[in-house]
From TrEMBL:
This is Uncharacterized protein. The keyword Membrane applies. The chain crosses the membrane at residues 41-60, 72-94, 106-129, 141-165, 171-190, 202-219, 225-251. Residues 268-296, 317-337 are annotated as: Disordered. Keywords: Membrane, Transmembrane, Transmembrane helix. The keyword Acetylation does not apply.
Amino acid sequence: MKRAWIAFLGTLVLVLPIRIFSMLRYLNPQTGFYSDGGKSVAAASILLVAGAFLTAYFSSRDGRAEISAAPLRNVVAAVLGAVAGIFVLVQSVVGLTAGFFGEGQIFYQIFCGAGILTGAVLMLTAYDLATGLRKIGSHPLLALIPSVWGCLYLVVLFIAYSAVVNLAEDVYHTFTVVFLLLFLFTQAKLFTGIESTKSGKMIYMVGLPAALIALATGIPSSIQFFAAGITAGVVSIGMHMANIALAFYIVAFLSALQAVPAAAETVPAGAVDREDPSQPTALPDTDDQGNKPMLNAEGSISEYAGFLRKACGSGIKFVTAGPSPFYSRNDPTTEES
């Protein structure tokens, strides 16, 4: 996983200066075109695609088989999650009052309503991270609300793109939302246990590229807004800030998740502890190495008892049977029956 983080940071260090310089120097915010013929944005895009691929590839090659599904407690992730929730909630409330152009007005209001719920879910997730609880995991429908919001986010972008053409920045915005959606959906499955703990590897494969693309898109656009008072594309400065907050939350969450050891095999309630010889244990068919108990030529009882002791800690003892006080082998009644 260290190589994935190195690829993430290295790509960010290379791409951000190019993106910031090209947007401030060559980009016309009103048309969305670059005066240098798009050479700078092409270079930044190639580096960003390569970096996103490397982070996903190195994440998939991680040696750890599983990620712990136990409740996670991390103050930094909790704070950044709460900040991201506040940004999404506030921007959604502002969106309801500001409105949307074109025929997507009603759909945009639905998107903003889902954003308010998403902000609340993110703050509930932050509470879980601060306290070490997993309240969100016991409510699968709540956990899936951010994923629904991400889907609506994509639809709103496509509606907006039908009225405005801004090729380069539109591509950045679209891939930002796509990877954020994948992360939110994978996180919901991890929280609710819908998928096995091995899905923890998938959360790195989509989470690191999501944070990388969101930062490479949101930070230059925010700098351009504060420098020129305008941003290229249809995404508002509020949504850019929300995307940046989500990216920092993703980084903090994945960092905290990486520090948690793989989930140990737990003994279900009512199961027998095999380390406790006082507990009754069912007789296994084989020993720890998968070998069946073998008796010697004489069918030694002591050897079989030794196998039971080794395999399951059995305290069973065998004794030689004495004559029965109730019947004898020569009893004619016994023979007839």
